[in-house]
Amino acid sequence: MTDDMQEIISDFVTEAEESLDRIDPLFVELETNGEDKEILNDIFRCVHTLKGAAGFLGFQQVVDVAHTSENILKKLREGDIALSKRVVDVILRSVDTLRVLIGHVKHGENAIENIAPLLAELDAALAEASGNAGNGGSRPPAAAGAVPKAVPSEAPKAPPAKTSPENVPGTPPAPGSSAVSPAPVAAAPAAPAVHEADKAAPERKDAVSNLRVDIGRIDKVMDLTGEVVLARNRLLNLIAAISAQYGDDPAVANVMETVSFLDLVTSDLQLSVMKMRMQALQKVFGKFPRVVRDLASAIGKEVDLKITGEETEVDRSVIEHIGDPLVHIIRNAIDHGLEPPEARKAKGKPERGVISIDASQKGNQIVIEISDDGKGIDLDRVKRKAVDRGLLSAEEAERMTEDAAINLIFQAGFSTMDVATELSGRGVGMDVVKTSVAKLSGFVEVRTRKDEGTTFRVNIPLTLAIIQALMVRTAGVQYAVPLSLIEEIVRVSPEEIDMAGGRRVFVLRERVLPYFELSELLGKGPPPKDAVRYAVVVAVGDSRFCLSVDKLLGEEEVVIKPLDGLETESSHTLGSTITGDGKVVLILDLASVSRSLTGTKRP
Amino acid sequence: MATLDYKEKILIVDDFVTMRRIVKNLLKQLGYENITEAEDGAQAFAKLKGGGFGFVVSDWNMPNLDGLGLIQKVRSDPELKSLPFLMVTAEAEKEKVIEAIKAGVSNYVVKPFTAEILKEKIEKIFEKLGK
């Protein structure tokens, strides 16, 4: 029974979080589109159901907050009070509080929040709103007054328990005086129900074919699939060796056939498991309208938010970790990117700024772009600030390319605002964005134009667990290089390497590419003179460079095993893997390599 | 005492998964095992039409077709019109209960309730049927 209870509570947390996540965007929609019965009904239902379940499970604080907000929502739904900023603000605050409370439940904490001020605020907002809507007086005033007062103490009781069955058909348990009012009340929810009925068919089908599975189980399947992939790789290697030796034996041919079938099935299995873990970005993007609304209204800017591509699916670990960095970029765009309305007017721009968010899948990458039509990043100012902060010398700043200058904003301890505003502030800078995205093996690019705006482009690999890799050897050690970021590979003889601006470059089809030795980068010293080199041309975002190695060993699908306790950023590794022939090999993190090579500071 | 047979197929209707689990759990505590779920009135009605159900526990507030809509449809259906139907309501809906009773629910229970209360409600419904 306790196990059952545990499961119910964990279901409750998931469902409650989902319900609460739905409320924010619904409210923003309400504010922009005006009052809409259906939306209000939807919001009401979320809170109402949450309260019901919380009551069963004994989460009294959740019941209290949900119940008090429900009172307001009910009045809103029935048109007794009008939607005002105060009402919306206080309900959104209740939603936030509910999130905190659900968070306590989730982590099994017995923490008690001080919800009294919020409850008072909710009641006050209701009282104020009811006062304003004095002409909505068709409703019996007694009911309006009685409901909020009855709130916190009575909710958990189960009064009708004593009602005898004989009582039921004749006398209603509620005050008989209200017998007039139920009819219009009940009519409201019933009406939409009818015309929604035709929409119901596809949704219903969805619901039946969906299955909630504990995430731990999926992760386990994912892990095991990784092991299968590794075993398959080994098997492919072994069978290649065996067939080279005993190719004529029909038994070997049979094994070959079976192994290649296994190979195919394993790839399909891997893909299917990957898809199982994918979720639409909607889950993350759904929070943004609220973020933009709160922030814009707090600092007096007018902002329109355009979201596209929210149906793009990504791995669930991306869903979990991409929210914060994106919110930070959005905050930054509203706070620093967009000009105040007067300034925009003066420049001949519309007073309302626009933030656009777009997600799409490009090959093996998910690309999320956050653009504003603000003033753009002032690179001279960025450089000056970086020099002031001692992040680089004036001379370095002078020589610096535009790209490198933009990248300064990602350096720890950098902020162009002299006074950290309350909003983007929170004591973190864009460097946190960079590190969080890097943890997902992704990278951020920035494009900016004076007075036209800035675009932050976040690139994240589709899956974090299994990648195609090129195996290389340099200074006697084998490394795996993610194939998705490799453009091409060229054989280079030493005399083809030129010098430009004190750096080695390689000219490939009239394009000058910075040229680096992987062995030097990893602190293993230069390769022997006159040795033949293979230049791996890497493209990370807009920057391209050559990484030179001793030997190419071929392609392999590798399963990334995270390395605990290794500082991945400075070691330039994503993790390790086990190769087909059973060796442990480090996987290079090209995004981190690129940052250290093209940035101003060497590692 | 007349009560719901333990072998009878029961339908729980609620749009919130947790609520369905809670009700299911309570029914199991009372010894009922043959339980099916539906997540709104429309889905529930389709399942009921499939036949074989001996009892319905339905929430009121649901998308697509709410509990009231469901009981109205059930009562006007010749095959289902005498199906025992327990409506789960919230306290806020108390004033509307008369509506549900007019529509023909066999009884109603207010959230939150315990297994004992549920048992009592079921017994009352079946006592009355037995008469």
Q: Biggest interface between protein chains, with counts per chain?
A: A-B, 60 and 48 residues
CATH top-level class of the largest domain in chain A? Mainly Alpha
> How would you describe the shape of chain B?
globular
Q: Separation of termini of chain A?
A: 56 Å
Structural class of chain A: alpha+beta
> What is the count of distinct domains of chain A?
4
Percent strand of chain A: 15-25%
Name the shape of chain A in a single word: flat
Q: What proportion of the residues of chain A is helical, as a percent range?
A: 40-55%
Fraction of residues in H or I helices of chain B: 40-55%
Give the radius of gyration of chain B: 13 Å
The helix-and-strand class of chain B reads alpha/beta
Mean pLDDT of chain B: 87
Biggest β-sheet description of chain B: 5 strands, parallel
As an assembly, this protein is: heterodimer
Tell me the layout of helices and strands.
The complex is a heterodimer of chains A (603) and B (131).
Chain A: H1 2-33, H2 37-57, H3 60-77, H4 85-106, H5 116-132, H6 141-154, H7 167-170, H8 182-196, H9 200-209, H10 215-246, H11 250-276, E1 278-280, H12 282-285, H13 288-299, E2 303-308, E3 313-315, H14 316-337, H15 341-346, E4 353-362, E5 365-372, H16 379-388, H17 394-399, H18 402-407, H19 430-439, E6 443-449, E7 453-461, E8 466-474, E9 477-482, E10 486-492, E11 497-500, E12 503-508, E13 511-517, H20 518-521, E14 533-540, E15 543-549, E16 551-559, H21 568-571, E17 573-578, E18 584-588, H22 590-598
Parallel strand pairs in A: 2-4, 9-18, 13-15
Antiparallel strand pairs in A: 1-3, 4-5, 5-7, 6-7, 8-9, 8-16, 10-14, 11-12, 12-13, 14-15, 17-18
Chain B: E1 9-13, H1 17-29, E2 35-38, H2 41-49, E3 53-59, H3 67-75, E4 85-89, H4 97-103, E5 107-110, H5 115-130
Parallel strand pairs in B: 1-2, 1-3, 3-4, 4-5
Helix pairs in contact in B: 2-3
